[in-house]
Design a protein that fits this description.
The chain is mainly beta. It contains three helices and 34 strands. One of its GO terms (biological process) is positive regulation of toll-like receptor 4 signaling pathway.
Length: 410
């Protein structure tokens, strides 16, 4: 069935379809079961549960399995009905779930890491389970034999992972704020490049293999789009969250990016426009507008008998300016600045009212969000977090693509 494209009025917002409650600790992962009214959850309370919607409209666990260690990450492959659950002790457990989602069989345990597992992905074509952990490494293991194929170590905790099945490229974000692009071979790996742009730890990644775009969210409250396949080195900065960005999902059909932050913020970014790349910050010993020296420029201060000024930067042109030459603030959504940011006075005059029109919509999830995932074909989203509540949302009013959801509003 082809998707319908709807207009997106500003007043539209996500519709809360259901709340799923029952975990005793932080819910670390929640995934919607494709083509089913069901959710799979994993929690720090050491349980992994499969919830199915009953005739009453409520969700009840059809499977309840207790692990030996807190559950920290999860991957589910629907076609083969295989579930991989990462744990705080570094192990990954594989299960096979029945067609009616009422029974689950243990398959094997993978000794993937020496510390907390942070992310997992499964590749059916190569039969690899790939994971990252707080032991500062990415590992890839053979699901047929259960044996370790390779590891690559980083200088910081590896926090998130995306994998391109076709090219065997892995993207790994870490706590230093760096993203490493690796080529994984059967028993070896090679570093292709590293991406640096965030000022905080990487918390989430999303790879779109069609447009070859990588999106990264970080604890610095920002998102960066990296154009891997096209214009090399091109990056777009998106700033619209008030807290660390916990999860992102790019919808290729409508060219929209959905992001969630720790304070419950849900943002939907319009990426189907020509955005401007934020400028590199220029360095100077004196203000590039009035030429007054900055406070470390001892020679010019001595020569002109003036007190040095503090350095700032205009977010629109990137020039180094003093406070007197950058007294204005403005949003500039075309460059990703949905908030008001510092701009120099001359740039402020060049920004028109229409340039300040938002290119994203912002919504309130009303709970701490530590993880989000989407079933894009149905326009559904599930969020979970430290409040132990799982929420299922109909996102079609804001993302504009709709198939028969299978879920009904309360």
């Amino acid at each position: 069935m082809a998707a319908e494209i709807h207009s997106r009025p500003q007043s539209s917002r996500p519709v809360l379809l259901s709340k799923v409650e029952g975990h005793q600790d932080v819910v670390t992962a929640a995934l919607l079961i494709p083509k089913e009214d069901g959710v799979i959850t994993a929690s720090e309370d050491r349980t992994m549960r499969v919830w199915l919607k009953r005739d009453s409209g409520q969700y009840w666990p059809s499977i309840y399995h207790t692990m030996s260690s807190p559950c920290t990450a999860m991957a589910y492959h629907h076609d083969s009905r295989r579930i991989f659950v990462g744990q705080d002790n570094g192990a990954i457990m594989e299960f096979h779930i029945s067609e009616d989602f009422n029974k689950m069989n243990f398959v094997k345990t993978y000794p993937a890491h020496q510390n907390r597992v942070s992310a997992i992905t499964f590749c059916l074509t190569s039969e690899w389970v790939i994971s990252t952990g707080h032991d500062k490494c990415i590992s890839w293991m053979c699901t047929r034999s259960g044996s370790m194929l390779g590891r690559h170590y980083f200088t910081s905790w590896a926090s998130c992972l995306q994998y391109d099945n076709e090219t065997r490229h892995a993207f790994v974000g870490d706590y230093s704020g760096q993203i490493t692009l690796l080529k994984l071979e059967q028993n070896t790996s090679s570093v292709i490049t590293t991406l640096k742009g965030h000022e905080g730890s990487i918390t989430s990644l999303w790879w779109d293999p069609v447009q070859r775009l990588l999106f990264s969210g970080a604890s610095d409250h920002s998102i960066i789009m990296w154009d891997i396949g096209g214009r090399k080195g091109r990056t777009l900065l998106l700033q619209g969250h008030h807290d660390k960005v916990q999860a992102i999902c790019y919808i290729q059909l409508t060219r929209q990016l959905v992001s969630c932050s720790a304070d419950g913020g849900i943002a939907v970014w319009n990426m189907d426009i020509s955005r401007e790349e934020a400028p590199q910050w220029l360095e100077s010993d004196s203000c590039q507008k009035c030429e007054q020296p900055f406070f470390w420029n001892i020679k010019q201060m001595w020569d002109t008998k003036t007190l040095g000024l503090r350095q700032h930067h205009c977010r629109k042109c990137g020039q180094a300016v003093c406070g007197k030459c950058s007294t204005k603030r403005s949003s500039y959504p075309i460059m990703g600045f949905e908030f008001q940011v510092r701009v120099c006075d001359s740039c402020f005059e060049s920004i028109k009212d229409e340039d300040r029109i938002s290119l994203a919509t912002f919504h309130e999830g009303k709970h701490n969000i530590s993880h989000m995932s989407m079933d894009i074909s149905r326009g559904l989203m599930v969020t979970c977090g430290s409040d132990r509540i799982v929420k299922i949302w109909d996102m079609t009013p804001v993302v504009g693509c709709s198939l028969a959801t299978g879920f009904s509003s309360r």
